[in-house]
Amino acid sequence: MSHAYEERATMIAAGELQSFVPFGREHCKNHPNALNLQLRQLQPASELWSSDGAAGLVGSLQEVTLQEREKERWQLRKGTTTDDVQYEEELYVAGNMVIWSRGSKNQASYVYKAFTVDSPVQQALWCSFTVPQSKKDVKEVVEQTVCIVQSTCVNVHSMSGKDFISPLPFQVSTLWSTKFGLLLERKNITVDGHMSPSREPLPILFSMLHPLDEIAPVVCKSTGLFEARLQYVSDSALRVLFTCLEPSIIITYDTQQCTHTVWALRKVTPEEQSTVLKCPDLPGPFHTPNAAPSFLSTHLRNVTRLDSPASPLHCHALHNQSRIPASPGLHSRVHSPSISNMAALSRAHSPGIAVPSFSGAQRFNISCHTPSPRGHSILGSPNSTLNETALLPEMEPILPDLCIEQLWTETSAISRDKGCQASKVFITSDLCENRYLCFLIESHQQLRCVKFLESNETSQLIFASVTIITAKDAAPLEDIHTMLVLEANGSLVLYTGVTRVSKVFVPGLLSPTFGVQNHQLSTPLENVSTPARATVQHISRLEEVGMPSPVLEVRTLMQHHESSWLEDSSFQQAVPHIHMLKDPVSNRVTLELSTGSMLRITIPEVATSELVKRCLQAIRFILPKDTAMKVLVKWYNSYNAPGGPSTHLEWNLFVTCLMTMMGYNTERLTWTRNDWGYLRCSDYHWQVFMRPSMAVQGLETVLPPGGVEIHESALKLESSALLFSHIPVLFYVLHLLYEDLKLDELQRSGARALVGLLQQLAKDLRLDDYIDLYWRDYPSFIKTLKEACVIDQAQMELMAWPVFLNEEAPCVFGWLSRCLRGQDVAPFPYLPSICERTKLLVLSYALYVVGDEDAISTNMSKYLSRLSAGQKKNITDPFLRRQSSVKAAPSSGCLAEKLMVWLTSAGFTLKDLESVPFGVALPIRDAIYQCREHPCSDWSEEVCALIGRQDLTKQAHKMTNCKSTVGLNVVLEPPVTSEADDEEDGMTDLHPEVTGLIWSQDLRVQEVRRLLQSSRPVRVNVPHLPEVSDHEYIEEKENKLLQLCQRTMSLPVGRGLFTLFSYHPVPTEPLPVPKLNLTGRAPPRNTTVDLNSGNIDVPPNMTSWPSFHNGVAAGLKIAPASQVESAWIAYNKPKSADLANEYAGFLMALGLNGHLTKLATLNIHDYLTKSHEMTSIGLLLGVSAAKLGTMDMSITRLLSIHIPALLPPTSTELDVPHSVQVAAVVGIGLVYQSTGHRHNAEVLLAEIGRPPGPELEYCTDRESYSLAAGLALGMVCLGHGSNLVGMTDLNVPEQLYQYMVGGQHRTHAGTNREKHKSPSYQIKEGDTINVDVTCPGATLALAMIYLKTNNRSVADWLKAPDTMFLLDFIKPEFLLLRTLARCLIMWDEIFPNAEWVTSNVPQIIQENIGNQEQATVSEDLNMETLVQAHDYIIAGGCLAVGFRFAGSANSDAFDCLYKFARNFMQCLTTSTATVTGQYNLQTCLSMVLLAVSMVMAGSGNLKVLQLCRFLHKRTIGEMNYGFHMAHHMALGLLFLGGGRYTLSTSNSAIAALLCALYPHFPAHSTDNRYHLQALRHLAVLAAEPRLLVPVDVDTLKPCYALLDVTYNETQWYEETTVELMAPTMLPELHLLKQIKVKGPRYWELNIEISKGTQHLQSILSRDGVLYVKLRAGQLPYKDDPHGWKSLLAPNPNNRNPELRTFKPEAISTFTSDASLVSFAKYFCRASENMKHKQDTVALLSAILYECVTQENPEMLPTHMSIDQAVRTLERGDLCETFSLWQMKLVLELCESRVLQQRLRNAHQQGRGLLLSSEFLPVMKSSADRALDQWLCDNIHVLRAYLRAQPMNNNTDGNMLACFLVYHSIPSLKNMVTSDLEGCSCFPELLLKSSQLGVPVRALLRLSPLLLQNHESGGQQCFC
User: In angstroms, how far is the first alpha carbon of the chain from the final one?
Assistant: First the structure.
């Protein structure tokens, strides 16, 4: 074959030719930007050429100057969406604009983002930054960004929507994207004039790891002559040409040495950082030790303009003649940069300090695609003066982030000219996965390819040989592992690595073989004056039709006329040729023609059919690399020849190509003949047409496709062929591939195509075992078993026979079948990464069927033998470690779980399972079924999807995706408000679907809304008596309204608790705050009553605190999971000053729900400087609550400013309002909660007894300050008891006791001594403690410090006194506090009954209260004191019960407290009220009511609601603002968070509740004397979500579900299980053991809490949504409360068992699965024409019923397939034994010992195997019957087979193959070797056959044949 022919033959056609115009250009034209006017004239060049006449051409050319062309640049890259759809992205730059567009084959380009910046864009590039995560185990987030470079800054826009602007401290020539971030190359300005010798060059390479990070210099580690050296990259001769992300390398060019160097880019190690910063003194000719550090600082001060020639910044290089070739730096040898220059450079962020590097031909950057004139840098250089202050030498140095390490440098052998800088660098890989680094040297027309490999030990790269290809241009095509090279003569050639594949023929351009510089067909050829015009046209058509056939006659003509074409110069100019290649993306590339127009072409794939791809993979895997490469290149050329084959013939072509390379003469093989012959011989044709129509005349009888034609004598193999010696190896790998294809239903046709090739090779290689195997698989396809070997013995010996070919033919079904029968199995061979499915299923069987737990870890090699390729060392697999010792047999449940988890980790999904053949898949389905019944609640989302539990999948998905924390709002639509609610009452956001389920019987939620709404006017009903004048009547109405307003103003406190955390704000809208409406309407005429009429006196500032509470209530609606930003908080700030109080409350609420941490410190400062009292209170308390227990320093400073005691004694006195001080003190308590911080405890202890001060500065509201200090002290030492570390000298408990009972003031130690020295001038307290002030704080502090410690000695201090004398000394309400404090300390002794409550009352009171009616009361007893003390102590006891059982809904506690509440209510209306006093009774009643609602928090109990409603209506008498507040707080707690929240009893919660429920309520709305009103809202800190809401995963609606909740055992009760109907409030989690969703309606689900509560807590915090799934045929509880309507409910009329079928209409109630519904519709309904198929319909209905009721609809196809297999077998027309194999595997699974054992265990749990018990035996007996029937009639066929006699053509081989497969009869070879025929009796036969693994069932059928030699009567058949 001549070279010319070779050249012509190996030519491939490029496809999809289209002209290319960057999309951004079109978009820019329409962009409304005046600066782009010039661009509009910029037409694509192709239009200019075609414009008519020369004048037009010249005119257009004048417009398009070089500068204009320069302005636009673009780059393309490949992008992939989440679902693997590939598209192209283009980044286009023109002027000030950057346009990022996307487009793909099936979607037109569209603009993804467009950016316009202020100054011309100098470069735009994509870059990925990694954002390091704070947690160790979290993997780093990668931010994908686009970076836009301007002269002074870089704009970075990330895809997640963040924008950054990073200023550039120097002029930059180019930016490069790397694996770690951006690499900046500084522009180098060289000037004439020499530098002074001592100067050092500044670094030229810098890195920026994140837009917010500092720009740091890059360090380089180069290998010198003697040792590696480390320094900054400061060689001004260095240019970066290319950076690559994977592997992370950069390529540089040294302009002086003219060499290219490859560096590895990596993070700097700490040692390297310290080495560089130490600034080592390197000996050198110009170095003076002290000159270096100071030169910058001294000289830069005088520099004003950058361009002055004397500027030291120009670092003019002294050409050092003796340069060491390997070194990267010019001055690096001399000295490395000192710290101060670095500092100066880094800190002077003025664009002026720049020594930017000169960048050569700019178009070699990947990012800039237009050639620029050499020598000019693209980036301009703005002159700017230097900022002197920036250059102080004392700056700290910048730590370098990245290091480049030298890997490879060009040898000096390659010619060194000045201009040999690479213009293009890329990495390409060849078809055998070798990788090359290629750089194009344009001036030499060379492409240098350096092969590199990654070494094993480290991630080091090893660079091997350099290959030089002559080329004008080149571009890599990643997807097909090739590169396109433009040769010097203008032809395009495809290379893979450095192997030439073929020329590429571009349909639109004439090929250069015709001697023309790339003709373009659009040129009118007729006008050319050439005699050969006709031929030319003929040739061009030929080109289009198909290249490869060599048309020799035409060729001679063409050569003859070549010269005449070339002489025609006018023609030659007009002929465009390919000028360069640009923008390669996957397998597409743009050709730029000399005319300037651009064409985009696609280079075809290596293979499109899946089967061919996998065969090529296998061939590539097993052959040596060079041979594999030849095969692939040969295949690529034959497949992609111009006018190549269509896809369905790809396989034929492949077989022909492969067999030709093996040495076959493919012309002579029947089945590789031309297409018509192929189709007529195909087995399909044979089965469909030939067998029925053999009798039809006129058709010649076509032989069934059987390999070789009759006269095979002429067939010889060419032993010199490329693959001849590899035939056996190739046969084996293709056989393994065939076995793998058999395991995939979707690849069955591929397996059948492959078997044709395999059986031909098997015959030729004389491998009877394999031929037998293929014949058993496809009996009708492979008719003849005659050996047709065409390879003689001598040739056989030339082949390389692998050792594994001599063993038994591997059959995967046979292997699995032996597993199921419990026989020993040999390891199954597999090809790594090609036969993955084989590996997966073999190991699954080993794990689940054999029961070997270690099959998937240490014992892999027991079941799989990995094939290693010829040229590879047998690298031991990681799983060939030592065998583990034998473990006890694991339970099946745990095996199933293991299997599921392992399959998921291997990426196996349900979709994959559907393509596994049904018999093979059954054990996996069985494992799935087991796991589905009893899943773990903490499995990953993928495992849950695999076992088919959508409820768990959804749950797991929600847990892993933090974004979807919005919980129920995702599930439930927000309620539609009715028109009546025009006045926003602030309570519309509760979830009616949930509340409707919790309280389904009544409208209590609406009632609570009615009671708590404050946005509508109240009804003022005052009867108009005749004697009252009109004026007095108006006054009377207004007084009545004032009374009602006391109630209205107290409502928000309750409303905040009621709507707690129920709303997710929209970030673009302000938070709606309901109005606080203080007007009234008077019936009958509905006239408005207003307080502002001036008729009555209204207290000043009456509404300031109520509006604060209103703001808190509105803010508390925001759920903690909402997205709240600092900007949104500020955006809510009201314009009008009168709403400032509301905003203050809103800020406090944001702190309570944790959002205030997002508020910027600057804003906090702004709010505090306004010195608005309310705002300060709200902000301080909010910030403290948000930072609860964190000891945050910045917040501590913030609070300390407001507490004089925490300031140093010399500080200026700040004028801080008293209530702000109180808030700050409580804030300290919150921030330091339970930390036991010594200093704060000391200060707070002193503050409890703070004297009023000489100038009375502290005298107002002293009580609330003292109380706050006590509460704060209690919080700081919360629950520490006597273990207060380091505070023994403070004597905290004794000091507190003294504050409680009184006594002498102690002398104060510490800083504030001075303040306490001088006594007050007006208040006479003397040295004694004022107990009325200090007692409450001290009492509660003791309670909190000793909380739950059961410390009896401290508790006894708090006992109520039991003598009249002492009782007189103590305020009754302090008794309430003491009783409460004592009980909280003795936590475990609180019991929920009336006896225990009354046991707190001292003896003296108990004795005398009862007999007050008798007159025997002694005179010295003050009855009033006793009664008051009694009531307060009882209230204290009740409150303690409330705390102890808060949120538990304990029925005993509720009964007890409810009884006391009723008692107090009766007392209020009887005479005793006069003794105790209305006020005291009312206080006690309020406290007991609060205690009841604490116990029933979140439960919405009706009785408590009635009590609250009764008290809500009482507005007369003693009912003041404070009592109303208490009652509405009780109402809020009762419906806490709309029933979704309840109270916790943790220490922190109790502390918060003590602050909030302090039993002294304000007398009026401005009263803060005893307790700061804002603290009432701290109750929120005790709330925790404990509502569990089952949500149906199909409808996504909340529903009812039964739960079993198991309690842990405690000292009071055993472990118990209670049944709850969810949605329900769960008990506190630490009390629980497990929660279980019970059947039978829903799928069971266990949540184990003993393992840890995180899983359940995360469910509850995400709105408590627990996904559940209804079982088939079940109705939800809402529709069917008693379970009578269910389809599975026993029907009393249906006594007849045959009526198991059901009407297809009923299916929809069982399942919503569309496929099942339509199956019922079309297959289970007897239509007119199916009358004769009644039994089929009945069978299908029964199968459907079975599958649906057993909850495994996925078994329906399995049932159907088994049924079909048996029917086909009965008809006797099985052409392939595939379905029979599956049937056999199913039967073996059901009979396998392992499963029998498992079933015995499973029957106790009530679930057996997947297939129903009746179905399989019927099917089995049918199959047995059919085969036995055949055996009776055809026993001679079997005998002939067993004796290896050739079969006649008319025998039925199909049934014989079925028989052999079904009965597991081993291959002929094995039977002959074990000499079964020689047995004399059945026992001997049994023994021999058991070694072969023949089942007894089969032996019984074979024994008559095998034993007939020895027994006379052996003719009869066993049936």
Answer: 66
